[in-house]
Amino acid sequence: MNVAASSKALPLVLSMGEPAGIGGEIAAKAWKLLRQDGPAFLFLGDPALLGGQPWRAVSGPEQAASVFRDAVPVLPLILPVPAEPGRPDVRNAPAVIAAIEQGVALCRDGRAAALVTNPIQKATLTAAGFRHPGHTEFLAELAPGGGPPVMLLAASGLRSVPVTIHCSLRQALERLNTGLILRIARATAAGLRQDFGIDRPRLALAGLNPHAGENGTMGTEERDIIAPAIAALRQEGIDARG
């Protein structure tokens, strides 16, 4: 595939992430790698973050493919305060949030194929009043109706989903229960079928304790929480193992 051949395809959108972080650098390097063959993307953020790479302001995703070979297409979100590497500024938090919101809106309106989120600095956003623990929960609020939010980490032959996210280890242990495992597993199985084209996904549920509890001698969560979830999933026709 090349950019010209894919000009009719919907572009990706990249949110700028934390301006004092690596989001701009990631976007610039991604453009250099993809500019010839695509896929094209649109950068939502301050063009000053692109490290001097050529950029062109556009009014929407529809213009991204036509300029992508020559410059980074940018839907500008100018920062109130110039970014200083390694020094996040709470005054820039609204622009960071706006980039995510605009990216989701473009996807939901059918104008972009997907949103790629650059890393955010959660402590800075929290200080500005952001009430979500991370991207995952915020995206779920912006695009409701799809079941519980699930964080999926994907490689070529493996996809991994944590049952608990964005909490301390102590909180993760407290929150773990059979019902939570069932909700996450069902959503994962549905997503693998719908989004990855895997007709019969296999779910491997990891143990919690050393040696998976060693029959209750090193913890009982496997016996009391995880095994019942596996049994219930198998009853529903989901290929779950553990």
Automatic annotation (TrEMBL):
It holds the Pfam family PdxA. GO terms for molecular function: metal ion binding; NAD binding; oxidoreductase activity. Keywords: Metal-binding, NAD, Oxidoreductase. It comes from the Bacteria. The keyword NAD applies. This is 4-hydroxythreonine-4-phosphate dehydrogenase.
